[in-house]
């Protein structure tokens, strides 16, 4: 029977049932639904809104339901309208009329708002844990490659020398910002809407703060209209996950490029690669291609909920039922991407020789050559022009700045001497960039320690 059957007569059209029913997706919130109901029933007994005997029977019955669900001895009735209907019907079947008192002072509007907040709070913590593990994998890779020189790029053109460690820690910093955003979102998610009722609260003397305390929430919704209609926290999470996926997509694009024979910077383990059905030589980075592709899916989930919410009048409207599928999809997508990227990175084989060869062939020490001239007293703009001439000469002769004879240097400017070769040595170019945030090994080592310290502090 529908929870709202008293007002209606006759059966609902089957097509409306199919459109209206949410049990197919909100059944995954059954743990959260029962946790919220246990807190609500406990408070009802403490305030005397229902008897302590009925409150205790309700709590015991609810705990029995979730125990049986987890044990597999009770199956969710997928013909029920939603998870709330199923739980209340099963509770009443088990304990009788006391089960009918569970919904006292509560509406499905504030109940589902609570369920989704509880579910998202748990999901945020899970995503944070997965993101932290990926950051650790980035730090591990960085530690192993503090001195691995490679090209840094702008416009996908070789620009200046950095290290693989420096590259990895750039992504670690992106993920740290994602963790901060998720922590902020968690604070706004842990707000209890229970007591908002359908939209105008209730006349029962509920203790809303007690329910929030029982659930580990930090605050209550201070306006009943807003309490049932707010989905800002869900939009905020989808926005945070979209940014997180953007970071994972950028990292994935790097790996796709680096796996190519044009780069040959890295080779993925066979467990994280696929082949071709027709080309036996192929080893494809499908994992990172899929992460890159699934980013658009999470963006779509954000846009779907923004669109659903954009013109809703207060308070609750059935359009808001569309929040769950978008949220569940985004959460599942982010989790599976993070779960696979960490072991993929830990088992990847990087090729330092290829990275250094690419750095040597790209004239990425040209700025250092110009800076050396500046150190000899030459204005930077003049030095820039002289080094540009040298690069053009190297291109014409198929040479590098390191291999160009000193006579060729002095033919362009008599300021040059043998000291220029030390200045343009790629390892030295990187080592001299000791400014905080730079790629020098000692600087990156401190950065790894800083990031690992932040993770350790978060785990306390």
Overview in brief:
The protein is mostly helical and 460 residues long. It has helices spanning 14-20, 23-26, 30-47, 52-71, 83-95, 108-144, 164-189, 208-215, 224-229, 232-259, 286-309, 323-346, 352-361, 366-375, 380-397, 406-412, 419-424, 426-431, 441-459; strands at 149-154, 157-163, 191-192, 219-220, 266-267, 349-350.
How does this model look, in words?
- It is a single chain.
- This protein is mainly α and 460 residues long.
- The protein is built from 19 helices and six strands.
- The strands form three sheets. It has a two-stranded antiparallel ribbon with strand order 1-2. The chain has a two-stranded parallel sheet with strand order 3-4. A two-stranded antiparallel ribbon has the order 5-6.
- α3 (30-47) packs across α6 (108-144), α3 crosses α8 (208-215) and α10 (232-259) runs parallel beside α12 (323-346).
- The relative contact order is 0.10.
Supply the key terms:
460 residues; mainly alpha; two-stranded antiparallel sheet; two-stranded parallel ribbon; 19 helices; 63% helix; 5% strand
Write the layout of secondary structure elements.
Layout (H helix, E strand, L loop, with lengths): L13 H7 L2 H4 L3 H18 L4 H20 L11 H13 L12 H37 L4 E6 L2 E7 H26 L1 E2 L15 H8 L3 E2 L3 H6 L2 H28 L6 E2 L18 H24 L13 H24 L2 E2 L1 H10 L4 H10 L4 H18 L8 H7 L6 H6 L1 H6 L9 H19 L1
Parallel strand pairs: 3-4
Antiparallel strand pairs: 1-2, 5-6
Helix pairs in contact: 3-4, 3-6, 3-8, 4-5, 6-7, 6-12, 6-19, 7-10, 7-19, 10-11, 10-12, 11-12, 14-15
């Amino acid at each position: 029977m529908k929870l709202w059957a008293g007002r209606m007569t006759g059966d609902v059209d089957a097509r409306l049932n199919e459109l209206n029913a949410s049990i197919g997706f909100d059944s995954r919130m059954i743990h959260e639904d029962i946790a919220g109901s246990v807190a609500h029933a406990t408070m009802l007994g403490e305030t005397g809104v229902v008897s302590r005997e009925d409150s205790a029977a309700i709590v015991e019955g609810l705990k029995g339901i979730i125990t049986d669900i987890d044990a597999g001895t009770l199956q969710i009735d997928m013909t029920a309208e939603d998870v709330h209907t199923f739980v209340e019907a099963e509770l009443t079947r088990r304990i009788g009329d006391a089960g009918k008192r569970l919904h006292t002072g509560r509406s499905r509007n504030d109940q589902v708002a609570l369920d989704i907040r509880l579910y998202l709070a748990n999901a945020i913590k899970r995503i944070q844990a997965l993101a932290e593990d990926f950051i650790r994998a980035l730090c591990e890779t960085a530690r192993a490659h503090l001195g691995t020189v490679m090209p840094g790029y702008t416009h996908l053109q070789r620009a200046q020398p950095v290290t693989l460690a420096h590259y990895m820690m750039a992504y670690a910093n992106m993920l740290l910002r994602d963790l901060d955003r998720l922590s902020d979102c968690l604070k706004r998610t842990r707000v209890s809407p229970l007591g908002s009722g359908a939209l105008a609260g209730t006349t029962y003397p509920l203790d809303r703060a007690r329910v929030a305390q029982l659930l580990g929430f930090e605050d209550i919704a201070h306006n009943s209209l807003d309490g049932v209609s707010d989905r800002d926290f869900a939009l905020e999470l989808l926005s945070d996950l979209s940014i997180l996926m953007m970071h994972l997509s950028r990292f994935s694009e790097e790996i796709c490029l680096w796996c190519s024979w044009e780069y040959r910077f890295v080779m993925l383990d066979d467990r994280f690669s696929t082949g071709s059905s027709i080309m036996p030589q192929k080893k494809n980075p499908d994992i990172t291609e899929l992460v890159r592709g699934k980013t658009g899916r999470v963006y779509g989930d954000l846009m779907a909920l923004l669109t659903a919410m954009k013109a809703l009048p207060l308070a609750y409207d059935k359009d808001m039922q569309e929040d769950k599928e978008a949220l569940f999809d985004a959460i599942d997508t982010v989790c599976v991407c993070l779960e696979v990227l960490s072991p993929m990175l830990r088992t990847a084989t990087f090729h330092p020789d290829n990275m250094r060869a690419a750095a040597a062939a790209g004239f990425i020490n040209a700025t250092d050559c110009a800076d050396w001239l500046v150190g000899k007293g030459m204005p930077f703009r003049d030095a820039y022009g002289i080094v540009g001439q040298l690069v053009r000469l190297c291109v014409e002769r198929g040479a590098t700045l390191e291999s160009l004879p000193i006579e060729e240097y002095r033919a362009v400017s008599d300021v040059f001497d043998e000291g220029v070769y030390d200045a343009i040595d790629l390892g030295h170019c990187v080592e001299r960039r000791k400014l905080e945030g730079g790629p020098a090994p000692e600087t990156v080592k401190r950065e790894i320690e800083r990031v690992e310290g932040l993770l350790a502090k978060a785990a306390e």
